Amino acid sequence: MFEEVRNLTPSSGLRIFAGFLIVALAFAPNESTAQNSRDTEQISYVFKRGDTLSGLASRYLRKQSDYRAVQRLNRIANPRQIPMGKSLLVPVSLLKYRPSKASLVAFRGNVSIAADGQNLTPVQGLSVSEGSRITTAALSFLTLQLEDGSRVSLPSNSNVRITRLRHILLTDSVDYEIAVDKGRIRSKVAPLQKKADRYRVRTPVAVSAVRGTDYRTRVDEISGTVFSETVEGEVVVAAGKNLNSGTLISIPAGTGAAATVTGALAKAELLAQPELLDPAKIQSEAELRFAVEPRDAAIGHRIMIASDAGFVDIVAELQVEGAGISLPTIPNGRYFARVTALAADGFEGMPATYSFKRQLSTLGGSADSGDFGYRFKWFGEGEGQRFYRLQIVKDSKTAIPIIDEAGLSTDTITLSDLADGEYYWRIGVIQFSSDPDDREAIEKWTDFEKLTVVN
Predict the structure, then answer these.
(1) Which residues contact 117 (CB under 8 A, 6 or more apart)?
(2) Which of these, 62, 209, 269, 400, could form a disulfide with 21 (CB 3.0-4.6 Å)?
(3) Mean pLDDT on 188-215
(4) Is the full-model pTM beyond 0.70?
(5) Residue 116 is assigned to a structural domain of this protein
(6) How many domains does the chain have?
């Protein structure tokens, strides 16, 4: 299941694919080293009819004189005699670009967005620019949507920087890069349309690059190991200081890669989708409770709750050991649960998604004797109209009820004519949703309680 990879030489096809995305990769934790690596990145441009090197420089390079750097890099003796179809390598650092945009589409809890030395107030639709630093506290979540439709989601306790958010003018391509300093992100990358389009996730010890996929990146807080896990598509992961001297591997859907602080790179198969037991049940208790089918390979599970099937608006999240999951209360409504299994080697498995209904409806009861007989009392929480039902049977829980009072809207009833003997009683409730579009009612009962009557 777990394969360590060292000094892996990629095939020519993989090298070409990666070359469009990452020509030189850096893995140092500080901004200056990462910037130095970007200065060596290059893109390919095919010379067309009517092109001149000085004309390209005027339109697409930051300085007119930078055409000389392009001429030297491509060993062009005469810039006026460049044949059509010739492929030129152009350093990314020389290219003009327009700033691209990211939009805050959903957030919950305590999130921080800082840009240009100022803390921005999170509001839906907020424009987030290159250079922004984003932090989520405990029980806090955030999702950004990039200009091309790609989405980046941050769960709790994460810290990232938007290090590239650009549209390159020469190639009409996007150049996106997210740096994960702490915690996790999920990248749902729209299929990139241009050969020069790039989407990368940079961490202190590795870089991953894709052309359209769904994958997760996590920096382990204790060991510093970086885990990349592919859910859909394929991801290229590199460790080392650049493409030529480092290790480069491809991780298709269902696999993951772990890069350590020592430069080692390991690949593993992800655990299969877990199965929830009775996933369609209405979550009506004070806590949300889920049970996962136990599997020997899983040491724990992670569950994420969202209001949408795409998990843009994340509501809650929890990691547990074992197969039982209990989460704090959330408002009534329709939700989606995404469950993954956690392996002993540190990888998070493939997700399974379920829809469920949350409608709080708790119920309890008590019985005691008083001056006027035996008083039965019930209580519970839940929005919407509630009707109660009292059932009492004699001698056996399976007997036909001798008292069956339905449609009760009060919370107490007193019975003064119970003869001596052993009885069993329980309380039921029928609760209707406060949502007028939801006509499904909840019916539930307490367990039978024993009552001994001695007059």
Answers:
(1) none
(2) 209
(3) 89
(4) yes
(5) yes
(6) 4
